[in-house]
Amino acid sequence: MLWITLLLFLVSSIIMAFLNDTAEPLSQTENRKKPLKVIKEGWKLIWDNPIIKRLHVLIIFEAIASVVWIAAILYVYVSEVLQKSESWWGYINTTFFFGLLVGGFIVSKLVHLVETHMRSLLIGSSFCVGLLTLFFGLNSIAILALVLSVLVGVVEQVKSITMNTYIQKEADAIDLPKIYGLQGALFSFLFGFSSLLFGCITEFTNVQLSFILAGTLLTASAIYLLFNRKAFPKTY
């Protein structure tokens, strides 16, 4: 499996070499900027744009809540709640990624519908992700866990695409690396800290409580989005 993974990475790297980048190259001034200055500019870009700033509130909630899908927690859920073998951890992962593929396919086929109802889709998919995560944690039926996993994947993909579309519509192309770079650092920091926190919750209480907390956080982020919906245009 490791050798196959290595081979796939090599093939993808070779394919990427043939990508045609039509973006304007950075100026010499941009290239010479110090890392701390770039980070500061990234924070300013996020803070000064009301839409991007509110989206990053969602990203913070998501970074904390998404740790329930890591192997360390999901495996405990499979073992203690579903009372199945470790192979079911693989089944849940597979169905989740299948859901991501389905969500991406749906968006690609309904582009016009998505673009004209962006705000509604973002709010609706945010609520769905939160509620489905709650149902997943409370569920103890193995087959139903697979169905819920697919549905989480579908709505998570729709939510992710909509959020990224908003960011890319609001920011200039030259500013996107600063925004996404800072976003990645913020997500990684929160994800790492939350892995420790939710790991302790799972260890000393029970794994279902971890999913309930994650689902509650995601639902709270959707409620926040609902109250701030006027900041988001319905379409571009």
TrEMBL record:
Principal place of residence: membrane
Gene3D superfamilies registered for this protein in UniProt: MFS general substrate transporter like domains
Membrane-spanning ranges: 55-78, 90-111, 131-158, 179-201, 207-227
Keywords noted in UniProt: Cell membrane, Membrane, Transmembrane, Transmembrane helix
Annotated membrane topology: Multi-pass membrane protein
Superkingdom, taxonomy of origin: Bacteria
One Pfam family in the UniProt entry: MFS_1
Keyword Transmembrane (UniProt): yes
Subcellular location: Cell membrane
InterPro entries with a match to the protein in the record: MFS, MFS_trans_sf
Listed PANTHER family: INTEGRAL MEMBRANE EFFLUX PROTEIN-RELATED, MAJOR FACILITATOR SUPERFAMILY (MFS) PROFILE DOMAIN-CONTAINING PROTEIN
Name the record gives this protein: MFS transporter
Origin species: Bacillus carboniphilus
Lineage per the UniProt record: Bacteria, Bacillati, Bacillota, Bacilli, Bacillales
